[in-house]
Specification:
Elements: H1 36-60, E1 64-71, H2 77-85, E2 93-97, H3 112-115, E3 124-128, H4 137-140, H5 158-181, E4 184-192, H6 195-207, H7 218-223, H8 226-240, E5 247-251, H9 255-271, H10 282-285, H11 288-296
Parallel strand pairs: 1-3, 1-4, 2-3, 4-5
Domain Polyphosphate kinase-2-related: 35-272
GO molecular function, one term: polyphosphate kinase activity
Keywords: Kinase, Transferase
Length: 298
Amino acid sequence: MAKKHRFDSDKFVVEYEKKLSLSRRPTQAGQELDSKTEGREALAVDVTALKAAQELLYASNSHSLLIILQGMDAAGKDSTIEHVMGAVNPQGCRVYSFKAPSATELQHHFLSRPVRCMPARGMISIFNRSYYEEVVVVRVHPKFLEPQRLPGLDTENPKSIERLWRQRYQEINAFEKTLADNGTLILKFFLHVSLEEQRERFLERLNNPEKYWKFNAGDLAERKLWPKYHQAFEDALKATSTKWAPWYVIPADDKWYSRAAIADIVAAKLEGLKLKFPNVDEAEVANFAAYAQQLREE
């Protein structure tokens, strides 16, 4: 049986405003697990713990959980949700995928979009991509700023655009601090996949008719912008990895490892809230024996 909570989450954390080089962060499995088999065993243990922790979260109705998954294309975000969160009660969990904003959404502040998706007390929200696209994809493709019609922004002036990114980092930090102060546990995971592994996953999609639907020719164009994406992620992660909403860079070349690591961290952090089931009035408990007797006599 795999040992519970064998991962040291601190090793994955991005330090706030400290230098971050994704090229120096590992993409392959660490030493916590010896094999894929052990990884599956560890995942099973933590998924069981996560299921119990989610029931307690739902029953206590005092906190909520927000999980954010970011990463390059084919980093494994979808399968992480399936394998890590597949066992939790669907009544207490919602998954949201952030595609390109609609014309209506572009007329509002970029943080107005996720507000409707935030978890109520007792609930879990999972963001498959998120509002961080506004400081990553939009940074790589600054032309996406044009339809936002932001006042005071000069898209031809690099300094003006850089001020926008710094402003958005600050707005994100303040937004997440408000959520945390209101009882939301925020866990943000960057699935760190290598360029070589992404290539293999794209080829797998192209060679398997059952996975054709996953392939998008536009992904090849985005792949050529890999250095720009890494720069955008590095800047965003280090600027928004706060004490109340840390970023974890998870090696993702080996899916069995990334799933086990994320499940372990989520379960451990939920358990760290030390939630309890609601108390039932002692006078009411005293009547339970009589209630049970009524049911037996039906």
